[in-house]
Each structure stands twice: as C-alpha cells, then as structure tokens.
Amino acid sequence: MTDRQGSDGQGLLNLSDAELMEMTADGNQAAIGVLYDRYSGAVFSFAVRILGDRAIAEELLQEVFFRCWKQARAYSPQRGSYITWLLSITHNMAIDELRRRGRRPQRADAADPALLLENVRDQDPSVEDRALMSALREQISEAMETLPAAQRNAITMAYFEGLTQREIAEELQEPLGTVKTRMRLGIRKLRDYLEKQEVELV
Amino acid sequence: MNGRADESAADHDDPSRAQCAFTEEHAAGYALGALDRFDRGLVDQHLRWCERCRELVDAAESVTARLAFLSPPVAPLSANVRSALMERIAADATGPIVAVPPVSSRPAIVSAPAETGQTPRATTRRWSRVLPAALIAPLAIALIGVLAWANSLQNTIDEHESELATLQQANARGNSAGEFRLFSMDAEPSCSDCNGSSRLGVDMDESIGVVVAWNLDPRKEHSLWCVDREGEEKWLSILKVDQDGGAMQTFAFPGNASAYAEVYIATDDDSKAYMTSIATPGVPLAD
To answer: How far apart are CA A186 and CA A40, in angstroms?
Structure first.
C-alpha cells in the first residue's frame, strides 16, 4: 500500500480503477489524476453532447472529478464499473445544469458514435482495450439501430436532451403513458440485445 | 403521476407492492433521468430499502450508462483544465469526506424491508440511523416548542407583523442558545392555489430540522427538498399533509446543514410552492 500511495503517478498506471478509487478515498491525489487521464476524454465528450457548449462542459468536467475526489468512498466496485459510476455522475450533473439554464442542446443524431470511444482512455490504450472498445462501440450502435424510431427518439430526448417524460409527451403530443412505455420497452430491448451479445462495459 | 393513479385496489391494500409496481413502471425513466422531481423522489425513497427494485434500476442504469458512448468526439481538452482541477484538489484541506451521501440521485439502501410485509417508513429509518438516542430528546423538546409556536401563529396568521415579531424572538432565543434556529418559509406569490405558510427550524449543530406548515393544498402531494450552496437540489422526504392542509415533519440534512442554502416544499405539479433561505449565523431574518 505504501508504494501505491506515493505521489508519483507513474507507479499507478497499471492499477485498476477500483484500486485507484480506493487510494483516492485515502486522499491520494495522484490516483485521482490517473483516473482523470483515463476518462476525462469520455466525460468531456459526453458533457459536450448534453450541454452543447464546450466551455460549460469544461467547468462541469472539473466539478465531476472534484466530486469523485470528495466522495470517493461512495463508489462500490460491487455495484458496477467505475466508468459507469463516473458517467452516471456526469449525466446527473449535466442534466441538472441543462435544466438550470433552461435550454436544450443541439441535436447530435448524426454524430458518429464510433469515434467517441477513442476518447475513453486518453493514454495509449492497449491493443486489447482498443479491440474491446471497438466491439463495444459497434454493438451499442447496433443495439440502438434495432429499436423502433419512436423508442430510440424517446430515449435520446430523455438521456441527451434532459427532457422529462412529461415534457417529451408534450413536445411529441403523445400520451404520457405512451412515452413511458416506449422508454421501458426500449431499455429492455437494449438490455436484451447487449446481454445476448455479451457486451461488457469497460 | 399516472402510475399512481393506475394502481390496483389490491395494491392499495399493500403499499409496498404498490411502491414496487410504481418503481418497476418508472425504472427506465429513472435511469434515463427523465422523471420529474416528485416521481424521482418517490423512487429514491423506495430504493432505500427495496433490494429487488434496486437491482431492477441497476440493470436499467447499466444500459443507460452505455448510451454515453454515443456522444460525438470532441477536440482534446487543454492541459489547463487538468492543472486547475489538480490545484483545486491540492488546496482542498479536508480531502475526501468520510461519511458520504449518495453521489447519484439515488440514495443508499438503509435496510431491508421488514418481513411482516409492512412498508418500512424510510424517513423514520433514516432518522433513527442518523440520530443517536441522546440527540432525540433535545430535538423532541425543540419540536414541541416549534409546534406550540406554530399553533400560536396559526391563530394570528393574518397578522403578519405580529407573526414576524414572534419569529424573530424565537430566532433570537435559538441563536443565543446556540442550539436551534428558526427561519421563515412563506408562500411564494406564484403559488396561486393556496395561502400556505410554513416555518423551518434547523439545529445547525446536528444538521437536523423540522418543517411546520399550514394552509397547504391537501389535494396535492408535497415533498421536501434542500438546495446546497452550489445550487444542487437534494430530495429529503415526502411531506405528509393532513386533510386540513397542515404538516409537521422532521428531517436530516444529507451532510452538514451549513452546506445548504435553502429548504423548500415542492408540489406534485413540480412547482416550488414555499421556500426559505437558511440564514448564516448571526444574520437576522429578512422581512
């Protein structure tokens, strides 16, 4: 543990996310720095996608990682991967910011999801990581393509544009129950598809 | 809130089953961040103790987290962003906090539901978990005082000046004792459906509080929220309003009360009906 808690980030590069979070919880600043290097690209891309503003996304990025620092003990590896936890925080904070500002981001439906995963690990991902991310990227994209357009649209409006079910129903002039059903079925189909493909999140 | 309206008669006989049904219906919306404040609060409350529903929501969130990867690529971050973050962390004298509130909108599980089939009272469970028995007594005394004070105020609710004077006196007593401070929480003008009033008492040392309210609209559902000094809203509990529109409820802040700037009551139409600011110590109440 002594070695791992040194301030030299070089010795930390081979540690797992969970190990780094454990060290972060103990106050090791270099550990959170390594996690930042690994995932800031993914967090930033995601924040820009939701907020539609690079400067605001940079502010949010710092807030996300500072929160990870302050609340590192809240992370439990038993409940999921670090990147899942991190992106969940990012999503919550970005949506809150979006709603606070009372505006919507630009639609980014035409974006190529294949390119995002290049940002997942900023520091020279291994061949294995690249292969895994490439497979994940394709399968998530394929999974979304399997959804009916209405389900895909409802999920996108909620997740990336920060709209509530009620707001989506009003905008689409559809019954609230219809919107809820689309989300429920859409998420279930995505889960079934990804499980069938045995996709693991990095 | 159609989900609640759709509950079957059998579900009404078994509140825990109704809550599970509600959570199942809204798990996808919850994981997508698409629930309004009130529905999200209901799900949060249920997830405190229902392991089965928590697993359901976990499964939905494992899917939605992957959607993040559908974001388009952006130009790399400048090194200045990293430097600013690391400087901020280096300047953080307290470091990672020891007792952590939940990071996501979802709270940690408090305990498993009772085997009797009774719906656990999550607020009470959290209350008992947070407060040692030794703290309950002074709080109870404070509550009795606040309740008596609120009742007396109800008789003079139209006499604002008198009410404010009473409040200020009570506040001054609280400050001088260093124990319990009272804050005003009057209806905002935008609330056209009612003439509700409420009072907030906060024990700043123990980070606990009590809300006393009256003239609320009993046809609506109300929940209690706090806002930290960075503007982040956190759900506290459902506010139980009696048929006459009155309510009195205790709560515990998620963390130190000094980190919070406001407490408010929200109604199920997502409006902020009543709000108060938590004053800084030594600053008199605003009129």
So the answer is: 29
| 3-state class (DSSP) for residue B238 | strand
- Residue-wise pLDDT for B21-64, tens only, equals 889 999 999 999 998 877 787 787 788 778 889 889 988 988 88
CB atoms within 10 A of CB B143: 18
Reported ipTM: the value is 0.79
**Rg, Å, chain B Cα set:** 21
Tens-place pLDDT, residues A82-134: 888 898 889 988 988 887 777 555 444 333 333 444 444 444 445 555 565 56
> What is the value of pTM for the model shown?
0.57
Pairwise pLDDT comparison (B6 vs B218), residue with the higher score: B218
Return the closest-CA partner of residue B51 out of B103, B108, B11, B8: B108
Taking alpha carbons only, the member of B233, B260, B250 closest to residue B105 is: B233
Question: In a 3-state reduction of DSSP, which class is residue B158?
Answer: coil
Nearest CB partner across the interface for B2, out of A46, A91, A177: A177
Rounded CA-CA distance B159/A44 in Å is: 54
Measured from the Cβ of residue B128, the count of other Cβ atoms closer than 10 Å reads 13
Is the Cβ of A84 closer than 8 Å to some Cβ of chain B?
Answer: yes
In this complex, do A201 and B90 lie within 8 Å of one another by their Cβ atoms?
no
For residue A52, the Cα-to-chain-centroid distance in whole angstroms is 16
Report residue B198: phi and psi, to 5°: -155, 165
CA-angle at B87, arms to A24 and A40, nearest 5°: 60
B101 shares contact with chain A (CB less than 8 Å)? yes
